[in-house]
Structures are given as C-alpha cells and as structure tokens.
Specification:
It is built from four helices and no strands. The protein is an all-alpha fold. Helix 1 packs across helix 2 (63-77), helix 2 crosses helix 3 (81-92) and helix 2 crosses helix 4 (99-117). 14% of the residues are buried.
Length: 133
C-alpha cells in the first residue's frame, strides 16, 4: 500500500507565519528564503551559459576566462550577471549593447588578452597620448 500526499499547486509560495520564539518556524522561513534565492539563480543560469559560449567563440578562450569576463563586465557596470548576459545575447541577435557595457566589454577584453599574453601591466581605456621628442 502506497501513501500519497497531495500538495497545493504552488506550495513553495506559501508564507510561514512565525513568532520570534519559534525556532522551527524561523528555520522554515530561512529555508524558504534560501530556496527563493536558489530559484532566482537557476533562472539566470541558461542565459549566462549562452553568453559564456558566445564569449568563448568571439574571444577564443576557455569557459572560466569567459565567465570571468562577464563577471568583470557586471562589476564595472554595477549590474547583475544575468542582466549582462542578457545584453550580450541580445547584442549577438542584433540589438545594440548599451554604451556602458560596450566600454566594460572593451576593458574586460583588454584585461583578458593581457592575461593571455602574460602582461602584468593593467590595461588602459585610452591609448597613450605621449608625444615623441
């Protein structure tokens, strides 16, 4: 004999009402918050993987440097990684990349190429403007 438990359709959306004194209720709230955070992370994962693949094709590199490039762009733009990945995928499909992300991409690519060449000097945004004597 098998016992079947029926759960409501969106059981994970239920909010636990708890008091400060109820440790089991606090654990349930903390676990639900963690589940929500993991769900949000998983929803952005496919587009991040797609953008990593695009970077790997465009700037011949492995997965880790490609992901680091996207993370670097996200930091420079003060944007979340899935949003940067969405913009890169949209740019691949013909939409213009926002100006700030274009600049961040150039900077991140220079850093990537400098690492590949083994240069220790940080990349610059502007070419040198020194005049020769």
């Amino acid at each position: 004999m098998h016992r079947t438990t029926m759960l409501p359709k969106h059981w994970w959306d239920l909010r636990a009402e708890t008091s400060v004194e109820d440790p089991a209720g606090q654990d349930a709230v903390a676990l639900r918050a963690e589940i929500d955070q993991l769900r949000r992370a998983l929803t952005g994962r496919p587009v991040i993987d797609q953008a990593c693949g695009m970077v790997m094709v465009l700037a011949p590199c492995r997965r880790e440097p490609a992901r680091n490039l996207l993370v670097d762009m996200a930091r420079q733009c003060n944007t979340k990684l899935p949003d940067v990945a969405l913009a890169v995928v949209a740019a691949w499909e013909g939409e213009p990349l926002p100006r700030l992300m274009q600049r961040a991409l150039r900077h991140a690519l220079r850093r990537l190429y400098a690492e590949v060449r083994g240069c220790d000097s940080p990349p610059t945004d502007e070419p040198s403007r020194r005049r020769r004597p």
